[in-house]
Amino acid sequence: MAALLRAVPRLPGPTVWGRPLYGLRCCNGQDPRRWVQSRLATSKEKPPGTETEKFQMVYRFDAIRAFGYLSKLKVAQTALTVVALPPGFYWYSQGLMTLNSLCLVGGIAGFALAMLCWMSYFFRRLVGILYVNESGTMLRVAHLTFWGWRQDTYCPVADVIPLAETQDRPQELFMRIQQYSGKQTFYITLRYGRILDQERFTQVFGVLDTRK
Questions:
Q1: What does the pLDDT read at residue 126?
Q2: Whole-structure pTM over 0.85, yes or no?
Q3: Are the C-beta atoms of residues 204 and 139 closer than 8 Å to each other?
Q4: Smallest Cα–Cα separation from 89: which of 97, 80, 79?
């Protein structure tokens, strides 16, 4: 994983990851303490009160595009492997394929599915860009979907656990972005990612303790 991160160059300039897209998922609500007791439905609209506000980019991970391509490639590879199973069963029933060959095809398909599930679980939580609104009350997290496309998730800053209060260290490859409500966990890398606005980043995640 670290070798892949080092191999991906940082490409400055406007990209699709620098623009807000549709199909967003939103964590609504003002008081995060009530989230622990109730499950809120997701929404495709911005949270109330932030429709007219601009969001400032505070963190960017350029290699997220490479992970998006990798996720799409893995989905396509898994689909092709699984599609090969029905013909394999047919050829085996006709005596055109041995049992060992059929088991090999089934094993490859099963391994591809398992790898897809594992990679998707991680990629969907890997942060590409972090935004904070002008008032500093809402965090927008740009991450990947199962299919490798971009998706934005909104979470109140008051519900974000400061990084200094977690067990993670800034020197580690990944650090977790956790919420008091426990709704979802994301991963950022300070080793390969870039903090673009130190002041706003500190307002959301607190001062990082490099002595851990």
A1: 94
A2: no
A3: yes
A4: 97
